[in-house]
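Below is how a single chain appears once it has passed through the pipeline. First comes the sequence as given, then the structure the pipeline wrote out for it. We keep one example in the README because the format questions we get most often are answered faster by looking than by reading.
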Amino acid sequence: MALGLIPGLISLIVLAAALVPLLASLGVITDWATPFADGWNPFWRNALRVAFGIVITIAALVLAGMTFTALTLLIGDPFYQRIWRAVENDLGGDVPEGDGGFLVALGESIRLVVLGVLVALLALAIGFIPLIGAPAAAVTSVLLTGRILARELTGRALNARDMASFDRSQLFAANRGRLLGFGAATQLCFMVPLGAVFIMPTAVVGATLLARQVLDTPAVRPTSPPHA
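Resulting structure:
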C-alpha cells in the first residue's frame, strides 16, 4: 500500500507546477476576461470578478482532479495491479488472470482527461448562471466526476474479466446509487489538500471491493467469459 503513494506524489508535483501559477494569476485572468466591467460600480465589478474567479477555480480543480487520476493510474499501473490482485485473492472466488495491460491503461487515461476537459467546460458554462452559478457548478462537477471516477476505478476488475460494454452498462445502471456514492465520496476526498495522494491506494481497494459486490448483483451477469 505504501508503494501506491509514489505515483500520486509524482502526479501531484506535475499538476502543482501548472495549477499554482494559474491560481496565482487568477486576478489578472479575471480582469482580462471581464473588460466590460471596468466602468461598473466597484462593488458589482468586484463581485463579478470574484464569482468568475471562483468558477475558474472550480473548473481548474475538476480538470486537475481528473488529470491527477489519469496520470496516477498510468504511472502507478504496476503498483495498483499488485494492490488490486491482492484484494482479489483475499476475497477468493473467481480471480481473473488478465490485467488489461499498459495500452488499456493509456487509452483509459486519455479518455479520462478528455472527459475531464468536457466536465470543466460544463462547469464554466453553469458558473455563468446568475446567483446560483458557482454552487451549481460545484455540485454538478462533483456528481459528474464522481460517476466517471467510479467507472474508471472499477474498470480494472471489469477489464480483467473481459466484460463487454453492454454488460458493463447494465451493471452500472443496476448499481447507479452505490457507484455514484463511491465516486462522489472519492472526488470530495481528492479535493482535500494531499487527499488524492493518500486516498488513491485506498480508492483502488474500495473500487475492487465495489466491483466484486456489483458483479454479484443477481440481475446482471457478464456474458463474456473471464480470462482462463
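The chain has one domain: 2-215.

See the next section for the split statistics.
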